[in-house]
Design goal:
Helix content is about 40%, strand content about 15%. By secondary structure, it is an alpha/beta fold. A 7-stranded mixed beta sheet has the order 1-9-8-7-4-2-3, sandwiched between helices. β5 and β6 form a beta hairpin. α3 packs parallel to α9, α4 crosses α8 and α10 runs parallel beside α15. The structure holds pyridoxal-5'-phosphate (PLP). Its cofactor is pyridoxal 5'-phosphate.
C-alpha cells in the first residue's frame, strides 16, 4: 500500500518523522528523545542488546552517554553511569555492592539523606554501619573491621568544612580489602580528583556544580570499567537513569563548568577572608584560612582551590539570623548549593530530623551557624551584601 493510500488515522502516526534535508554536523548535539530505536531483525537485536547499538533508552542513550564521557574525562575515571539524582547514584552504588552481613564505615559528616539511606534502608538488609570522625585517621583505623566492605566519605564535610585526608584513608581501607567510595559533590574535579588519591568510586550530585544553574537534578558514578560493569546491571534494574533532555542540558552546563567553578572558588576564598574580619562574625570555616584545623592538608590536597562552600557563625539568636536572611538583597536561602548565584543555608534547621538539638550542638551546628555556597557574582557586590546584612547583629 502506498503512503498516499493510507488512512488519515495511520498517516498522522508517520507524517513529519523524517527530515526533509540532510542534517550534517550540528554545532550542538541533538536531543535523542526516542525511548526506542527500530531493530531491523533478530540479528540486529543481538547486536543492539549486547551493547553494539542504541535500542532502548533506559539501557543506553546518546545524550546520557555524552554526559558520562564528560564526567569520566573530568574525574579521570574509565567509565561513568549517569543517574536521575545524586541519591540515585549513591543508592545504586551501595545497593549494588553490598550484601547482608557486610559492614560500612562512614564519615559522621556526610549528606543527611545518605545517613538516612544507611539507617533506614541498608540496615533493613542486615548491613552494619559505623559512623566515625574521618578527620582523625586513628578513629578510622580503630573502626575498620574484617567485614568492612565500603569506606564511605565526602572530602569536604558539611557544614563545618572539615577536610578528609583521602590518600591516607584509602590506604587504610585497602588494607582490609574495603572499597573507598567518595561523594565529591562539594569539591568537584576542579578541586580534587579522588580516584587519583586511591578512591575506588567517585559519586557526584550533578544537581550542584556540574549542572550549576539550579535547573537539573542528576547524579553520577565514576570508576574502572570493571567496577562500572558490576554496578551497571543493578543500575538498570533500579531504573534511576537520567532522561535525554536533562542529559542534554547537563552536557551544556559542563562546557562552562570550569569557568563558573573557578570563579566560585575564588569568591568563596574572598568571602571567607572578608567575613573573618567582620566584628559580627565569631569564626569562619574555610580551608584556605590559616586557622582552619586542616589548612595544611587542604592546601596539599586542593592547591587549585578548596571548593565554594564555607560556613560562619554569628550570634545564636534565631530572630536575628532570620532578620539577617531577610536583610540580604542578593543572596538567597536555598535548599541546594552549587548554583551560579550565591546562596545560604541553615545547617541546624536542615539536620534537625537527623539529630537531636544536643547532638547538633555537639557537632558544631549551632543556631548561629550559616552555610554559604559561593556563586559567580562580582565579589565586591557579595561582600557589601553580607556586610550590610550583618548589621542586624549590632549590639546597641
Ligand atoms: C553532598 C551531597 N551528596 C548528595 C546529595 C544528593 O543529591 P541529589 O539531591 O541530586 O539527589 C546532596 C544534595 O544536596 C549533597 O549535598
Amino acid at each position: 500500500m502506498k503512503s498516499t493510500e493510507l488512512t488519515r488515522e495511520t498517516k498522522i502516526l508517520y507524517a513529519g518523522s523524517e527530515s526533509k534535508l540532510p542534517i550534517e554536523n550540528p554545532e550542538t548535539p541533538p536531543i535523542y528523545h526516542s525511548t526506542a530505536n527500530i531493530i531491523r531483525d533478530m540479528d540486529d537485536y543481538d547486536v543492539a542488546s549486547t551493547g553494539g547499538k542504541y535500542y532502548y533508552c533506559r539501557t543506553a542513550n546518546p545524550n546520557r552517554d555524552g554526559v558520562a564521557e564528560a564526567v569520566s574525562y573530568l574525574e579521570k575515571g574509565e567509565q561513568s553511569l549517569v543517574c536521575s539524582s545524586g541519591m540515585a547514584a549513591i543508592s545504586s552504588t551501595l545497593l549494588s555492592l553490598i550484601k547482608p552481613g557486610d559492614h560500612i564505615l562512614a564519615s559522621r559528616s556526610i549528606y543527611g539523606e545518605t545517613i538516612e539511606l544507611f539507617d533506614n534502608i541498608l540496615k533493613k538488609f542486615n548491613v552494619e554501619v559505623t559512623y566515625s570522625d574521618f578527620t582523625n585517621l586513628d578513629n578510622v583505623q580503630a573502626d575498620l573491621k574484617p567485614n568492612t566492605k565500603i569506606v564511605y566519605t565526602e572530602i569536604i564535610a558539611n557544614p563545618l568544612i572539615e577536610v578528609v585526608d583521602i590518600g591516607s584513608l584509602s590506604k587504610l581501607a585497602h588494607r582490609v580489602g574495603a572499597l573507598v567510595v567518595v561523594d565529591s559533590t562539594f569539591t568537584t574535579p576542579f578541586a580534587i580528583r579522588p580516584l587519583e588519591h586511591g578512591a575506588d568510586i567517585v559519586i557526584h550530585s550533578l544537581t550542584k556544580y556540574f549542572g550549576g544553574h539550579s535547573d537539573i537534578t542528576a547524579g553520577s558514578i565514576t570508576s574502572s570499567n570493571e567496577m562500572i560493569k558490576k554496578i551497571y546491571s543493578d543500575y538498570l534494574l533500579f531504573g534511576g537513569c537520567l532522561d535525554p533532555n536533562s542529559s542534554w542540558l547537563m552536557l551544556r552546563s559542563i562546557r562552562t563548568m570550569e569557568m563558573r567553578v573557578t570563579k566560585q572558588f575564588e569568591n568563596a576564598k574572598k568571602i571567607a577572608e572578608a567575613l573573618a574580619k567582620d566584628p559580627h562574625v565569631r569564626y569562619v570555616n574555610y580551608p584556605t584560612l590559616t586557622n582552619h584545623p586542616q589548612h595544611e592538608l587542604a592546601m596539599k590536597l586542593m592547591p587549585k582551590g578548596c571548593g565554594a562552600m564555607l560556613s560562619f557563625r554569628v550570634e545564636d539568636d534565631r530572630d536575628k539570623v532570620n532578620a539577617f536572611m531577610h536583610k540580604l538583597n542578593l543572596v538567597k536561602y536555598l535548599g541546594t548549593l552549587g548554583g551560579y548565584r550565591t546562596s545560604i543555608a541553615h545547617p541546624a534547621t536542615a539536620f534537625r530530623n537527623e539529630f537531636t538539638p544536643e547532638k547538633l550542638k555537639e557537632m558544631g551546628m549551632e543556631e548561629g551557624l550559616i552555610r554559604i555556597s559561593a556563586g559567580a557574582e562580582a565579589i565586591e557586590d557579595l561582600i557589601s551584601d553580607f556586610k550590610q546584612a550583618l548589621t542586624v547583629f549590632d549590639t546597641v
